[in-house]
Amino acid sequence: MALHLAKAGHRLHLWARRPESLRPFRECDAKEYASPAEVAAQVDVLFTMVADGPDVSAVLLGPNGVSSGARPGLVVVDMSTISPETAREMAMRLAVHKVDFLDAPVSGGERGAKEATLTIMVGGKAEAYEKARPLFECMGRTVTRIGASGAGQVAKACNQILVGAGIAAVSEAFQLAQKSGVDPVKVREALLGGSAYSKVLDLHGKRMLEGDFAPGFKAWMHQKDMRIVMEQAGKAGVALPTAALVSQLLNALVGSGLGEEDSIAIYKVLEKLSA
Amino acid sequence: MALHLAKAGHRLHLWARRPESLRPFRECDAKEYASPAEVAAQVDVLFTMVADGPDVSAVLLGPNGVSSGARPGLVVVDMSTISPETAREMAMRLAVHKVDFLDAPVSGGERGAKEATLTIMVGGKAEAYEKARPLFECMGRTVTRIGASGAGQVAKACNQILVGAGIAAVSEAFQLAQKSGVDPVKVREALLGGSAYSKVLDLHGKRMLEGDFAPGFKAWMHQKDMRIVMEQAGKAGVALPTAALVSQLLNALVGSGLGEEDSIAIYKVLEKLSA
After folding, report:
1. ipTM score for this prediction
2. pLDDT at residue A110 is higher than 90
3. How does DSSP assign A143-175, residue by residue?
4. Gap between the Cα atoms of A169 and B159, Å rounded
5. Which residues of A touch B194 (CB under 8 A)?
6. CA distances to B37, B50, B128 from B13, in Å
7. What distance in Å separates the CA atoms of residue A120 and residue B193, rounded to the nearest whole number?
8. DSSP structure class, residue B140
9. Domains along the sequence of chain B with CATH
10. CA A143 to CA A210: how far, in whole Å?
11. Fewer CB near the last or first residue (10 Å), C or N of chain A?
């Protein structure tokens, strides 16, 4: 994602927890720093992309974090998938330093990141969004401001419900076909032309049938995202039975030692049930 | 569907349980008969389209049914959604009369039928399929022979799992957004551009958000189709937890007195849960 910014002519100011993460930038117009605070002191727009809420909090608000180096007017964009509540908290804590915060989680996986075809779902103030938009457009194909702080994360939660439920449903359909003596390859082809069409049936379904469970998007990350979904459901007071089922299937998948495979390996959990 | 055949220049020989069903054919090159047996005596390819397995059995094998009037070499095509097992039974019972049987359920709803854009999933012998194919192509856009007798019905069962799970997941995503104070219209727009894309999110999702629950495809018919899915899952020995959940949501929908609405009214069941 950062390489696309460099390719578009932007100077990069970099920090990473693991030095090897910076290896791809050796040929770029890029400078490395010793802390998030030092980066924050140099830039107008600062991106974070880490695994979970506590990581974002540490980078932004921890010792030598972004908030301790930021100049007023800085726009901080977190592209990690974290809870809407943590996103809103980050926005409030940074506002004290006159720093704007956008939650801007992405969908599209490793491939979307490499090909700059990500879907980027943004929450935060409209003015801050307008500043960051040209940069988003270097990294993604569909860039949408959903609403106020946290709204990007809510949209991402919705995305993960749809993709997860899609994977479970496609897995079940293929297994019903197989166990009924019918070729799931033929079923998939027929269904792609009708109202059952989905990107999950098309792209993920193809890989399931080829037995290709390499990530893509790792199961443990989808499990983490469904934890966020179910937490948010609890806070918002909304029952999500399908999402709850997907969440349990991901628990079983990670619990089976397959957390490093793609989350389409939900197929294997459902297959094992009736094997 | 039959009107598309007439439009393509085929002479229609018609019978219907309710005379009013034949009203649209008054302007066509069409002749009405007093029983399925009389129709069967006139035609090379005979189509049935009724609600459920017992209806198909009555029309094909009952008194004055197709089998009592059929000439050897007749191809009977049933486009109803019935169980794969009933389809295979029909094929065997008609084979005694040297009549070929194709199960050819469709997906695409009323709109697909009117616009001749149906997905048609066919099970049965390849030679019989080749005879009927030009006629299928008058009615549908995606016509696929899935495999032997019953395979079309298995594919349709898979289709109904995907559409039903899609409706449930989209409903949950929209309600999570709404209850989290985020506009589901914006969420839908953003998600259409990414890996969460599905026809259900696109077409059905739009109607959900507009509050348009007119059929389309009636809830009680989807409930019946999910009964077939779960019966087939039992016979095939495969656990389908997502499909089972969809089936329960449809039970609740029909039980709430909303069986005549579109099956996207699953949205209302899920909404009511947290209202």
Report:
1. 0.97
2. no
3. EEEEESTTHHHHHHHHHHHHHHHHHHHHHHHHH
4. 10
5. 107-108, 112, 118-119, 142, 159, 199
6. 11, 17, 20
7. 10
8. E
9. 2-148 (3.40.50.720), 154-273 (1.10.1040.10)
10. 32
11. C
Among B180, B192, B202, B225, pick the best mutation site for testing chain A contact (most A Cβ within 10 A): B180
Report the alpha-carbon distance of residue A244 to residue A227 in Å, rounded: 9
Give the CA distances from residue B234 to residues A49, A107, B153, B238, in Å, rounded to whole numbers and listed in that order.
Answer: 46, 36, 15, 7
Burial of B59 (0-12, 13-18, 19+ CB in 10 A): buried
| Residue ranges in A96-150 assigned as alpha helix (H) | 109-115, 126-139
d(CA B85, CA B90): 9
Q: Which amino acid is at B239?
A: A
**Cα of B23 to nearest chain A Cα, Å:** 29
Tokens in use for A44? Answer: 């107008």
Please tell me which of the candidates B108, B194, B238 has its beta carbon nearest to residue A274.
B238
pLDDT at residue B109, rounded to an integer:
86
Residue contact B159–A200, C-beta within 8 A: no
Tell me how close the Cα of A222 comes to any Cα of chain B, in angstroms.
Answer: 14
**Mean pLDDT on A112-138:** 97
Rg, Å, chain A Cα set: 20
Give every residue of chain B whose pLDDT is below 50, as ranges: none
pLDDT tens, residue by residue, B127-145: 999 999 999 999 999 999 9
Tell me the CA distances in angstroms from B133 to B66, B117, B145, B208, one per residue in order. 21, 15, 9, 36
Residue range A86-106: average pLDDT?
Answer: 98
**pLDDT, position B47:** 98
**Residue length of chain A:** 275
* Beta strand extents in B58-136 (DSSP E only): 75-78, 100-103, 106-107, 118-123
Q: What angle do CA B115, B119, B121 make, to 5 degrees?
A: 145
Å between B20 CA and nearest CA of chain A? 29
Q: What is the mean pLDDT of chain A?
A: 97
pTM of the complete model: 0.97
Run of H or E residues at B145: strand B140-147
Write down the pLDDT at residue B167. 98
pLDDT digits (tens, 9 = 90+) for A142-169: 999 999 999 999 999 999 999 999 999 9
